[in-house]
Design a protein that fits this description.
single chain; mainly alpha; 4 helices
Length: 113
């Protein structure tokens, strides 16, 4: 018995386009040409509540989506700047996560109120 190979082609092969060309968002979107700016500006813009009302994670996902969609056509320098912006947002997310937790004081241990 010989194994049959599937002759079904992927939708990408049929149309020459990827699924991401259909992605559009109405609720939030980054300002026009923001991905062409420096890392600090990108991070500040995508970290704002106006652009990312669900939090900094949305901005991180927008940058990653942009990087993925650009693929091999994205110049190395631009990719580095976008990665830098992503890291700035990740650091901000970490700071916000730690800020929300109550701090434990070493002085209150063993003390009666």
């Amino acid at each position: 018995m010989s194994a049959k190979k599937s002759t079904k082609k992927s939708s990408h092969a049929k149309t020459g386009r990827k699924w991401s060309h259909k992605v559009k968002t109405v609720s939030t979107f980054p300002p026009e040409r923001v991905f062409t700016k420096d890392a600090k500006t990108i991070a500040r813009s995508l970290g704002s509540k106006k652009v990312s009302p669900k939090g900094v994670g949305s901005g991180i996902r927008m940058i990653q989506f942009f990087i993925n969609r650009a693929g091999k056509d994205l110049p190395h320098q631009r990719r580095e700047e976008l990665e830098k912006a992503k890291h700035l947002l990740q650091a901000r997310k970490e700071r916000e996560a730690h800020r929300g937790k109550p701090k434990k004081s070493a002085n209150t241990k063993g003390r009666k109120s």
